[in-house]
What we know:
By secondary structure, this protein is an alpha/beta fold.
Amino acid sequence: MDKAGQALAKLGAALQPHAKNIEILAGPGNNGGDGLVAARLWHQSGRRVSVSAVGDLTRLPADAARALAKAQAAGVPIRHGLPSANDGAALVVDALLGIGINRAPEEPIAQAIQWINSQSACVLSVDVPSGLNADNGNAWGGATVRANHCLSLLTLKPGFFTAQGRDYCGQLWLHGLDVVPDVQADAQLIGNQISDLPSRQHSQHKGSFGDLWVIGGTTGMQGAAMLAASAGLASGDGRVYLGLLDDNAAGAAAMPPELMRLARILWNDARALQQTTVLCGCGGGQAIRVHLFAALAHARRLVLDADALNVIAADTNLQQQLKHRKTRSLATIVTPHPLEAARLLKLSTAQIQADRLGAAQTLSRQFGVVAVLKGSGTVVCDVSLNTRINPTGSAALASPGTGDVLAGWMSGIWSQLNEHADSASLAARAAVYAHGLAGQHVSAGPILASELIERLKSLKRESA
């Protein structure tokens, strides 16, 4: 607790070096004890510190009780209950609740959270913003602190990076308190995988970088398949073939000239499917169903997105085919958003979002696939149930077609990996990281899917 309080005091001083007044809201647990240690240190350094003790201080844990006694002995002003108003504090410290909360905060903590959220001062949370579930990132709306900064202690928590976590944590900081964790991590963060991808050699030709088939684009939705195919081509794939379900549409004439048309005679050709990477579902509607049987049966590498997932979720025969692919050494990536995942697992969207890591693991376990559960903090789970969370991305990606771009970029990377032992998982991780990175730092509003492809191309050139 002394180390935690020292870390908090140092960070607060660095964030607000000229702050003369600091307000600390301390709860009735060890989180409050961390705040009390920092309060004593700030007070001793000459800063004006005020502590609002929220809850029953007679039931403090032993370490927190000692921190309270030391703060009182040092002369730190401690009031019971909330301040009547902010008396000019430039820094407000949320030391109310720690990890482990799985229900909405109750009074008087809930009222203290509302008070913090009403302040214009910089808000620094200790370990986790009070009210946020550190395991899954679920928040309780107005009963969760919206922090500007959060000092995580010992380890980072999965809930910081997925579901609503990023909306509440602000800037994350970590202090390990010189403790080496003795338990296995629930998940790992995805890093930039560019160094793990093969480099292009001068002697190679386009046939060295794989073939990708994109099958989708029914009436009125050809754009989805075109975006996916264009993204696959931009990723560096050697040859990209586009199979439009509605190939008589006027929109087909607008197909980028670098793409090739996929002859329908090949769509069900077992030998051809065994030699390529196939992406099914982008803009596919119900029309994609008839083409899924051959893809599931023969495609060596298969990415299932959008309507392909919806059709499979409604058809037990297709579900069984999907499950059998792993036993036949055929690799599959599925890329559902929460509603599509809910349909596949026969759950509600709320249940998926309540445990995003668990949902991704269930998809991988049940269907024998690499699962990419999209959303804020996309979760990637491989067939060995190794689970990773993507730290990149922004709300700018909440735009039509960006999911099609992700599926195409991912498929194109996978196609280039040849016989890499971990190719499906590596392609998924590399794609979601780059996709999120390309969607960051957008000046205003959503990013257009076509612009996203250009930004991905720029990132690829910069890393070459």
